[in-house]
Design brief:
Number of strands: 16
Radius of gyration: 20 Å
Strand content: 25-35%
CATH topology of the largest domain: D-amino Acid Aminotransferase, Chain A, domain 2
Bound molecules: N-(5'-phosphopyridoxyl)-D-alanine
CATH class of the largest domain: Alpha Beta
CATH architecture of the largest domain: Alpha-Beta Barrel
Order of helices and strands: HHEEHEEHHEEHEHEEEEHEEEEEH
CATH superfamily of the largest domain: D-amino Acid Aminotransferase, subunit A, domain 2
Helix content: 25-40%
Length: about 325
């Protein structure tokens, strides 16, 4: 059997330890790195792919044994909802908020019959079965309208939804969190129910690939001159010390990380406003960041080739990163 090593964090940590001791003037950096280092879990030597255990329609099974029907509406139409939840050292972060959003997505899509209440037990079981109780991981949940002969309208009420849950080791992006990333702006060609976390993600996939081909880490959407959100993240800007992010409308996903960041602003006394950010004002921002479950709080230092502020993560971003790191390790 061939063993695959999927997660190693130690090399990156060591490199940053050296860099931080050299830059004593930047004490915040040492704090953030300290929190990250405390959060570093033991290296996870991932088991053989055949041994990866997932949950599929009521059963735990090796991933390779799962057979999804070609009639599944998730496969045929992208007809389903999903969630991604981080686990830090075996503990799910903001699980309740993710499950509530999943309930909202399923309700909006009129997908009935899935027991969202059971998901936290399933998640805990998967963490144990995959030996991820002390490492960082990302949980993926997908619920589709089930398998039925292809027909656009819903199948009859007897069709059970398809429920899939999997967990994979997660490698934190220490270098990107510290240095920041580049983004590109792209037209928002998505539908107008972006508040639903739907499986159908073609415009997001196309935008993300465009970013990758431009050497950027994220594509951020612009709708009618307004910055909405990224292909898989929410977006924030800082204008004169005030954090601004798009209001919670149908044009964005109400990100769990976005909610946490607004709570942290409240706690830290950072002024914030949920209002639209016009593309033409973007260059006036002193700091930009993207937020998400796997992205956490990511500084943006370049947009379409122009530099944000002095090209380094700014003070508001760093304060939030530090508070976020403390929260996930609490
Ligand atoms: N993406 N906006 C979009 C379009 C997203 O897909 C996501 C999450 C977010 C941030 O939401 P949260 O903070 O709840 O993760 C905003 C997930 C992680 C993904 O698709 O992998």
């Amino acid at each position: 059997m061939q063993l695959r090593l999927l997660l190693t964090t130690n090399g990156a940590d060591d490199r940053y330890a050296v860099e931080s001791s050299a830059g004593s003037a930047r004490s915040w950096k040492a704090d953030v790195i300290g929190a990250w280092r405390r959060s570093s879990r033991p290296t996870h030597r991932f088991r053989d792919k055949l041994d990866v255990i997932v949950y599929f329609n009521g059963q735990f099974a090796p991933k390779d044994d799962v057979k999804v029907s070609p009639d599944d509406r998730g496969f045929l139409f992208g007809d389903g909802a999903y969630e991604v939840i981080r686990s830090y050292g075996g503990r799910l972060f903001k699980a309740k908020e993710h499950f509530e959003r999943l309930q909202r997505s399923l309700k909006a899509l009129r997908i009935d019959g899935a027991s969202v209440e059971r998901l936290s037990d399933i998640a805990r079981d998967l963490i144990q079965r995959n030996d991820l109780g002390t490492t960082d991981a990302a949980l993926y949940i997908q619920i589709t309208r089930g398998a039925a002969p292809r027909n656009h309208a819903f199948p009859d009420g007897q069709t059970p939804p398809t429920v899939y849950v999997a967990i994979t080791p997660f490698q934190p992006s220490h270098q990107k969190w510290e240095r920041g990333i580049k983004i590109i702006l792209v037209p928002d060609r998505r539908w107008t129910r972006c508040d639903i976390k739907a499986v159908a993600l073609l415009p997001n996939v196309m935008a993300s690939q465009q970013a990758k081909e431009c050497g950027a880490a994220e594509a951020v959407f612009v709708r009618d001159g307004v910055i909405t959100e990224g292909s898989h993240t929410n977006f924030c800007a800082v204008f004169e010390g005030q954090l601004v992010t798009h209001p919670r409308t149908h044009h964005i996903l109400a990100g769990v990380t976005r909610g946490v960041v607004l709570e942290l602003c409240e706690k830290l006394g950072i002024p914030y406003q949920e209002s639209v950010i016009h593309q033409e004002r973007l260059r006036e921002a002193s700091e930009l960041m993207i937020l998400g479950t796997t992205t956490e709080i990511m500084p943006v230092v370049q947009v379409d080739g122009w530099q944000v502020g002095d090209g380094k993560p700014g003070p508001v971003t760093v304060r939030l990163q530090r508070a976020f790191a403390e929260l996930v390790n609490a």
